[in-house]
UniProtKB/TrEMBL annotation:
Database matches in NCBIfam families: PRK05627.1-3 (NF004160), PRK05627.1-5 (NF004162), ribF (TIGR00083)
Enzyme Commission number(s) of this protein: 2.7.1.26, 2.7.7.2
InterPro entries hit by this protein: FAD_synthase (IPR015864), Riboflavin_kinase (IPR023468), Riboflavin_kinase_bac (IPR002606), Riboflavin_kinase_bac/euk (IPR015865), Riboflavin_kinase_dom_sf (IPR023465), Rossmann-like_a/b/a_fold (IPR014729)
Protein name: Riboflavin biosynthesis protein
Gene3D superfamilies to which the protein is assigned, alphabetical: HUPs, Riboflavin kinase-like
A matching Pfam family: FAD_syn
Job description of the protein: Catalyzes the phosphorylation of riboflavin to FMN followed by the adenylation of FMN to FAD.
GO biological process, any: FMN biosynthetic process
Protein species of origin: Prevotella corporis
Domain named Riboflavin kinase: residues: 183-310
Length: 314
């Protein structure tokens, strides 16, 4: 599969294709359901299968104060797309010039002239063009004028819920990781670098690594304690652990943090990049009257999470 970064108006040398377009945040099961249909249509038509996506969320260009809360970084998104049977992934540089294009102009200048799209498959809830003003019927009409066949795809439903990035975000935000992971098709993951913390956990016999995720733009799950697995950058074997997301009210904290305690690990993690995979929220964050009470609760959390992770392995 080829990755094409498009930030100029030059026509690419790309074979005629069946394409779909979208931000594809998370590349969840709904996205892959759509991509599978694109691939099948392409193979039956003797064309290539192409996904067209963007290097940043459009709202980052349209609204200067927008703070991303994404399910995947661009690198993660591309890694997931590489696992599909697509022939091409085109990454458009989203800027103000692109944002100003009407749907028809976008179809004519980008899809047809630059990318050689012959058939466009629209996701069930997807729209594009300046202010997303046009409807699916408009896309069909423009396509007929330009020589691009436009067809609509259906939604993928899990437990009577149509899978979409916004639905997955709601599950993550509410701490419902089992449903989020079911919709994603893989466990939700956040990467970050270990930075110095207050070391309160070490005093209780539960040393934690304070993970800085401020630059990732990734969505944090609801505050609480989670069963996780963690992969160190220099070790492919994941370690079991428990993570607390929140403000640490027992210590009168004010700032949101993400601290993980790794099971069966003793070593220096400062400066290392960790990949945290989330499985289940065990409990909410709460304030304890003393460190002893918190320590007892952490011991209970650890026993519960170790048993849970062992059951996941079976």
């Amino acid at each position: 599969m080829g990755i094409i970064y498009l930030d100029s108006i030059d026509k690419l040398t790309i074979s005629p294709s069946v394409a779909t377009i979208g931000f594809f945040d998370g590349v969840h099961r709904g996205h892959r359901f759509l991509i599978d249909h694109v691939v099948k249509m392409a193979r039956s038509s003797g064309l290539e299968a192409t996904v067209i996506t963007f290097d940043r969320h459009p709202r980052q260009v349209l609204h200067a104060d927008y703070q991303p809360q994404m399910l995947s970084t661009l690198d993660e998104k591309l890694a997931h797309l590489r696992q599909t049977a697509l022939d091409n992934v085109v990454v458009l540089h989203f800027d103000e010039q692109l944002a100003r294009l009407s749907a028809r102009d976008f179809m004519a200048s980008v899809l047809l002239r630059q990318l050689n799209v012959r058939k466009l498959v629209m996701g069930y809830d997807n729209r594009f063009g300046h202010n997303r003003a046009e409807t699916f019927d408009d896309y069909v009409r423009y396509g007929a004028e330009l020589g691009i066949e436009v067809v609509a795809d259906t939604a993928l439903a899990i437990d009577e819920v149509n899978v979409s990035s916004s639905v997955v975000r709601r599950f993550v935000e509410s701490g419902n990781l089992p449903m989020a992971n079911a919709c994603l098709g893989y466990p939700y993951q956040i990467q970050g670098v270990v930075v110095p913390g207050l070391q309160n956990g070490r005093k209780m016999g539960f040393p934690t690594a304070n993970i800085d995720v401020s630059g990732t733009g990734k969505l944090l799950p609801e505050s609480g304690v989670y069963a996780v697995r963690v992969r160190l950058e220099d070790n492919e074997t994941p370690l079991g652990g428990m993570i607390n997301i929140g403000i640490r009210p027992t210590f009168n904290g004010k700032k949101m943090s993400m601290e993980v305690h790794l099971f069966d690990f003793d070593g220096n993690l400062y400066g290392k990049r960790l990949s945290v995979t989330f499985y289940k929220r065990i409990r909410g964050e709460r304030k304890f009257n003393c460190m002893e009470a918190l320590s007892r609760q952490l011991a209970d959390d650890k026993r519960m999470i170790e048993a849970f992770l062992e059951s996941v392995d079976k």
